[in-house]
Amino acid sequence: MTFLNTNEETRKRKFKKCMSDTCSAKTLKKRLPILEWLPKYKTEFLIQDIIAGITVGLTAIPQGIAYAVVAGLPPEHGLYASLTSGIIYVFFGSCYNVTVGPTAILAAMTARYVSNYSPDFAILAAFLSGIMILVMGVLNLGFLVEFISMPVISGFTTAAALQIAASQLKSLFGLSGSSGDYFAESVYNFYNNITTAKLWEPVLGFGTMVMLILLQKMGQGCNRTDGFFKQMRWFISLSRNAVVVVVGMIIAYVLKVMMDAEPLNLIGDIGGGLPKFGWPPFTTVVGNETYSFTDMMNVLGPQSVALPLVAILESVAIAKAFADGATVDATQEMIALGLCNIIGSFGQSMPITGSFTRTALNHVSGVKTPAGGITKVLLITVALTSLTSTFYYIPKASLAGLIIIAMFSMLDYAILGRLWKNSKRELFVLVVTMIVCLFAGLEYGIVTGIILEAAMLLYKVARPPVDVSITKCQKADIMLVPLSDSVSYCAAEHVRRVVLKASLHTLSETLIIIDGTSLRNMDFTVASNLMSVVKDLEKKSRQILFMNFNSQLKNLCTDIDPKSEAKFVNALNAVELSDQLTKDV
Amino acid sequence: MTFLNTNEETRKRKFKKCMSDTCSAKTLKKRLPILEWLPKYKTEFLIQDIIAGITVGLTAIPQGIAYAVVAGLPPEHGLYASLTSGIIYVFFGSCYNVTVGPTAILAAMTARYVSNYSPDFAILAAFLSGIMILVMGVLNLGFLVEFISMPVISGFTTAAALQIAASQLKSLFGLSGSSGDYFAESVYNFYNNITTAKLWEPVLGFGTMVMLILLQKMGQGCNRTDGFFKQMRWFISLSRNAVVVVVGMIIAYVLKVMMDAEPLNLIGDIGGGLPKFGWPPFTTVVGNETYSFTDMMNVLGPQSVALPLVAILESVAIAKAFADGATVDATQEMIALGLCNIIGSFGQSMPITGSFTRTALNHVSGVKTPAGGITKVLLITVALTSLTSTFYYIPKASLAGLIIIAMFSMLDYAILGRLWKNSKRELFVLVVTMIVCLFAGLEYGIVTGIILEAAMLLYKVARPPVDVSITKCQKADIMLVPLSDSVSYCAAEHVRRVVLKASLHTLSETLIIIDGTSLRNMDFTVASNLMSVVKDLEKKSRQILFMNFNSQLKNLCTDIDPKSEAKFVNALNAVELSDQLTKDV
Question: Where is the chain membrane-spanning (chains A, B) (predicted)?
Fold first, then answer.
């Protein structure tokens, strides 16, 4: 009773604390981190934030266009995505390194709904994901992503990288036909259409890939703080994505002028200017069919759960990786990410999350505060308002090369060897996740992986190790059944069976002791089963005792079977208990 | 390597053993238990089996008719259900006490599909459930029902009893209108139609209930082995279900002759004769619509999983309750139950499982072998072939009274008080399960309960207690983090956070020791997180050591980060370890 009251007290205190926390200035700063860092802003931060913003922006533009293409959207949507979210994150983001925007995986997950329906589905997906992420953030449900294990993440990421790379084979070789929604379909289409391959596309595509690798190597050993030449090498290397796209554009333009034709597939017309602001599309028309909100929800289906989960997973993982050992406020990151998606969807943005490549870039460029994002946003605004006619000449093959190289960095071979050596069970989970991702779609794969891991975990919990031991004593032997830390309802029947089975192998005078010394928790189901064991054993005239059950657990048992009261005893160990009993007799 | 080979060996041996087991005479007897008990049959068993068969049969007939009514089926289907299954269980059943047939819960779960569609759906449900149960039996998947905890079972059973009792209010009061598919709907309809109540129906219905209670009390203290009068009292008490129905029939007949009209709602014409044997209905016609197999499957939907699960649950629970401490061969019980349903569906049977009432009756009647079932089957055959014209006069009010009384015995009030006192969490699970059952249907309720319990369990596994302690030592303090038995992937982030957080409250020279002494299992995800803790702490120049990790766990970690090799140490305890280190320095 006292125990319950104390609990009540603690709860009340926690509630009060929670209420006052919600209203304090400290909380305001926590929820609007710009209030924390802006007053402390120093002029020397400015130059570093600007440099970082430029390198990130020079990558965000080609990547934004490329990922819009991956998602099957008009290229400008990829730029819109970095625009609004970039501004929102400056206000709400708690990790100064992180930059948000479109990512390859979210683009690939959106693709199916765009290619089979319309771009409106991508914008609605961003809005809905934003709502889900915000709600999960506010309700502290971020822990849900902890149920996605590393093997599942690894299988999912590898499959995503393969799927995205495969979808670019069409553009890389300039093939006719469609590229396909799945990895398997893309590979199949590639094989079927390989005879339609052109000359200039693969030359430019593979050229782009070689250039990217060389530019990366060029930057090695150079640093932001080095001398001018090394500094330039460092800067060009970091901006390599922009460099290869510019080179591709020049080649396309020169070829056009020289041949008086367009031998390369180009991005073509890009809708210039800033995005139109307005409500996200809650109804849409595809072909002749009007889709109501419910119809659109039905189309998005499992995506509406998988997309926000993956967005949270990516963003929190990135925040943690670049936190330099500081603790990450996952709740705040989720609130920021949710708002970025919601408000972004009012500006025609596709779903966004933290970008690994650009965050890493931000980090090595020496960013100091989230203000770095402002430069990036300005750069993209310039691109949208005055460069779209130039973007006309971006060759699709250049983007394909850029995307494929980016995907290679997402592959993780090392984990395969580690799991093969140490845990074949987890390797199995990885492979199953990957196969389902490749052949049924990314969202089904990740959900399959999560369920498979959870099922395996539940099975393990249902079969806790019970090490029955038999000790010879002076008078009667003892069969000792130690119960572990916590026995759950699903293990109740298992424990019952183990005790009954073990008792069959002992002499009838052997004393059976259930040792609850280290038992902290026990369900009603377990208690009921233990009491039924007593009845089963008494029918065979066997003696059973419960040793060192704490009072709460004992009460639970005696509530079920009041006659069992006398069977609960305390002792230092089983042998002492046996000696006591023998003396009594 | 040796370890792996040994594993391989064991697996081969197990496989061989499994193969030879499958083919041995012992296994044949296990899978066809009649081969075990029939050769040992003694003549003195015969009389006891016959008496038990008669009492069970006299209950199986009225209950069969009543539960067919609950399911909304023509009454004869309830008798068909006891017929075929009764024969099959004689051959395959491993528990001599158990009798199978229609049960109130399965009938209630079938009702919705019958009342909205056609009886064919009940027969197909029996066939499909049989297949599911058989497959689960053969694949040893019976353990799945261990994931249905007592609170879920209790909430489900209580809701089922309430729903079934409520559905009988219409017949009990002779109301017009429909009775409703749900508890809430039935109560609402009862309230709306109460003004249409008749006189004779409630009189007979409540009379039946009073009679049942009195007849039950009459048998108390009497026994099969007593003198003639007491023996008769005992027998009549056990056959009370048949007695009240016969009394009802006589009253209905007398009223008809006296008033020259039918003032009571009667069962009416029952299709006489044995069931027609043939394939279960894989297609059917409802109204003007033809349902293909796929359409029928779509209609059955979640039922096709919930029905077999509940059937297994009921039958295994009953087998265990009446096993007298013997271990129950759950696999064999599932095989028998599966075959009973499959073959039964060829004889127009509704879904069946072990019946608690009739099994208890069988037990107190002193049954000796499954042969008792033969008498029951003969009795039902007689009923079907020559008594159906008499059954015309069974008043629906009598059946309603009989069903309502049977439902009262299913209510379990005691568990509510026990859970209130000991585990409010489990009470919550019970209440949620019950509410969903009452307002959305039994199958949704039980699935909700299972998922809720599993989610709570997973959350608990994701938040294992980590008791960080700080010990003062000569040179430097020690922060000790003991890891429990098994840390799962979903707890990885939690452990990481606890360690990082606790380290913030210690001095920078404090030695951090992760104690793996009692750690048996660790996922790849956990190992990765531990290695990332090392990196995080090293950035702050903190010293961390891993104490007493077994070689397998150590290998997993050093595979991820080979540089951590030196951090793994063995010691008796943390203080000894600290002393060692100080000496070294």
Answer: 50-74, 86-109, 121-141, 199-215, 235-255, 377-394, 400-420, 427-459
pLDDT reported for residue B8: 57
Same domain, A396 and A455: no
Both A343 and A394 in one domain: the answer is yes
pLDDT in tens, A80-101: 988 888 889 988 988 888 889 8
DSSP string, A479-515: EEEEPPSEE-GGGHHHHHHHHHHHHHTS-TTPEEEEE
Residues A489, A446: one domain?
A: no
Same domain (yes/no): B522, B406: no
Closest-CA residue to A526 (of A486, A563, A489): A489
Q: How many CB pairs under 8 A join A and B?
A: 134
Residues A442 and A293 in one domain: no
Measure Cα distances from B55 to A323, A563, B314, B466, B518 in Å.
75, 33, 21, 59, 57
Q: Are A100 and A229 contained in the same domain?
A: yes
Residues B350 and B497 occupy one common structural domain: no
Looking at per-residue confidence, does B575 or A49 come out higher? A49
Among candidates A150, A324, A491 on the partner chain, residue whose Cβ is nearest the Cβ of B539: A324
DSSP string, B300-327: HTTHHHHHHHHHHHHHHHHHHHTSTTPP
Could you tell me if residue B69 is inside a domain?
A: yes
- Domain of residue B558, CATH code: 3.30.750.24
In a domain, B556, yes or no: yes
Q: Which two tokens stand for residue B25?
A: 């005479």
Contacts of B377 (CB under 8 A, 6+ apart): B82, B83, B86, B87
Cβ–Cβ under 8 Å, residues B59 and B376: no
Tell me if A31 sits within 8 A of A335, measured CB to CB: yes
- Output the DSSP codes for B393-447: T-BHHHHHHHHHHHHHTT---HHHHHHHHH-HHHHHHHHHHHHHHHHH-HHHHHH
Domain membership of residue B134 (yes or no) is yes
Please enumerate in sequence order all residues whose Cβ is within 8 A of that of A223, keeping only pairs 6 or more positions apart, or say none.
A230, A231, A234
Q: Which of B457, B501, B532 to mutate to test the interface with A (most CBs of A within 10 A)?
A: B457
Mean pLDDT of chain A: 83
CA angle A270, A271, A276 (to 5 degrees): 150
Q: Return the number of other C-beta atoms located less than 10 Å from residue B144's C-beta.
A: 16
Tens of pLDDT, residue by residue over B400-443, are 888 888 888 778 888 888 888 888 899 999 999 999 988 887 87
Element (H, E) at B132: helix B119-138
Main-chain dihedrals φ then ψ at residue B61, nearest 5 degrees: -70, -55
**Pick from A458, A486, A540: CB nearest B325:** A540
Query: What is the distance in angstroms between the Cα of B153 and the nearest Cα belonging to chain A?
Result: 10
Can you say how many angstroms the Cα of residue B261 is from the centroid of all Cα atoms in its chain? 46
Burial class, B10, CB count within 10 angstroms (exposed 0-12 / middle 13-18 / buried 19+): exposed
Q: Do A457 and B488 touch (CB under 8 A)?
A: yes
DSSP A328: P
pLDDT tens digits for range B509-522: 888 889 888 888 88
Rg (CA), chain A: 31
Confidence of residue B23 (pLDDT cuts 50, 70, 90): low
Q: Which domain holds residue A575?
A: 469-584
pLDDT score of B529 more than 60: yes
Of the candidates A428, A525, A482, the one whose C-alpha atom is nearest the C-alpha of residue B485 is A482
Do the chains contact at A422 and B540, CB–CB below 8 Å? no
**Number of separate domains in chain A:** 3
From A418, A452, A481, the end of a domain falls on: A418
Residues A458 and A473 in one domain: no
**Pairwise CB contact (< 8 Å): A325 & B422:** no
Give the gap in angstroms from C-alpha B267 to the nearest C-alpha of chain A. Answer: 42
| Cβ-Cβ contacts under 8 Å, B552 against chain A | 422
| Calpha distance A101→A89 (Å, rounded) | 10
Q: How confident is the model at residue A332 (pLDDT cuts 50, 70, 90)?
A: confident
